[in-house]
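Subject: Sanity check before I submit

Could someone independently write out the structure tokens for this chain? I want to compare against mine line by line before I put it in a report. The sequence has 278 residues.
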Amino acid sequence: MRSNKVYRRLSLREERKDQKDRFLEKDRSDVTEVFEDVFDRLTLMTIYELMNRGVMDHLEGVVNEGKESKIYLAKGRSGEELAVKIYLVVNVEFRRKRVEYVTGDPRFEKVPHNLRRFVYLWALREYENLKAAYYSNVRVPEPIAVKRNVLVMRFLGVDGRRYPLLREYVPEAADEYSSIYDLVIANLKKLYTGASMVHGDLSEYNVLVASPTEIYFIDLSQAIGVTHHRAGELLYRDLVHVNNFFRRRGVDVIDEVQIYKELTGRDPPIGSSYIRSE
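---
Independent answer below. Compare away.
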């Protein structure tokens, strides 16, 4: 009987060692800090479950980090590059800032008061938004899996380096910004008409540029349906932000009012605080 307990204890120890060995393959010096900062017990269990399911093989290092989430580069079983977004479950302001986006979403009838459960719902919401956009042929990261506060997507980059954000992109030819602008507007329209969504936070910070002919929208967690009471307001804000950026780059943009009318069939909320130029 005692030998069985010892065997189980040793097996658990080996499992935990294997689990740690598969996190952050490139930089072992960060393991302790990362475990304390991000990987609480349930998050550790979640990542290990995803590994056991074959969704990913191991994590390799941080790609991007913020106050509310961190994104890690991971490798799949076949060596493919993945992005693993881990929402932190310790930010007490998280629910307060986002509850209005979830309230009224027909996909999620009950909005939990518990912070951890709300973060889980938010991760699921981003996964569902990505899936709706991806299958409407909007250029977004391909969603792979979601479990609790962990979202797995196809990595957008090459050899572990993500594509530059629109704000970071350095064009090689004068007309590249015009080509990129056309792609951004085309995908914004496709998101609205095909996936029935408004990004809600679209700007040079949420567009990745692989080339002048290949761009991607990212961070769709706050995206809302076109029937949401703030859809018109946020759509117009997205158009203003996009046009402001490209105007500064010398692009002959399409008037945001014209695009708004084309998509919605009505006038934009001009009375809002959004202005045409910065």
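---
OP: Matches mine. For the report I'm noting this point. The chain is about 40% helix and 20% strand.
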